[in-house]
């Protein structure tokens, strides 16, 4: 039988691989949507500074979301929550810029919500699996 520590370590490794794939998938979907939206915006004049602010907000959102998730996996929930709060602020800032440029806000909100729920939901699933395994062993 596998020890609790080895079980948890192996599960965390598998979860990190799955979450990396999730990040790549949502990044690709978001990039495709932004590309399509920009091709439509390209037919009209738009503010290059607003576009730069959008991409900066988007980059900070993605960075803080991924770092916050990793910190939560390490067990530092307060620091993880801080990064997730920064991710939320960056997402709101990017969303406002995107709306101003003519992006569909609902699509951005749905993509972001699915991404956050996917990452944090997988953390919750891992916690539940580890808890059940530990409970059954004691």
Largest sheet: number of strands, sense, barrel closure: none
Radius of gyration: 18 Å
Please work out how many helical segments DSSP would assign.
4
What sequence of helices (H) and strands (E) makes up the elements? HHHH
Structural class estimated from helices and strands: mainly alpha
Strand content: under 5%
Q: Spans of 5+ residues with little confidence (pLDDT < 50)?
A: none
Sum up the overall morphology in one term.
elongated
Q: How far is the N terminus from the C terminus?
A: 13 Å
Strand tally is 0
Helicity range of the residues?
Answer: over 70%
Summarize the helices and strands and which ones pair or pack.
Layout: H1 4-41, H2 48-74, H3 77-101, H4 105-137
Helix pairs in contact: 1-4, 2-3, 2-4, 3-4
Describe this structure in words.
Helices cover 89% and strands 0% of the residues. By secondary structure, it is mainly alpha-helical. α1 packs antiparallel against α4. The radius of gyration is 18 Å and the shape is elongated. The relative contact order is 0.15. The mean pLDDT is 82.
